[in-house]
Write a structure and sequence with these properties.
about 0% helix, 10 strands, mainly beta, globular, about 50% strand
Amino acid sequence: EVQLQASGGGLVQPGGSLRLSCAASGFAFSNYDMSWLRQAPGKGLERVATIRGFNPVTSYADSVKGRFTISRDNAKRTLYLQMNNLKPEDTAVYYCAKTSSGDRGPGTQVTVSS
């Protein structure tokens, strides 16, 4: 059973930073592309960033390029999202997901507000 548990969200002021983590289990983590998704209030699900399995090639939504960095530690079966220069429009529930299947676990709330 695929299990994905995101953590690290919280309330931060505009311009601040947060680092999200996602602990993965139930599948061969290093073999799979992984993504961070987010859903803002009243909006649909948006892909924020993706990282390949063995070859850590990354891709980002235009809205977060230059501010967010996705990374992974295959030995720890953990996915990360470093978020810098946060903006109010980044407020959302953030989920980590196994890209190919769309499996995702409970999200973590990120609120950017002064």
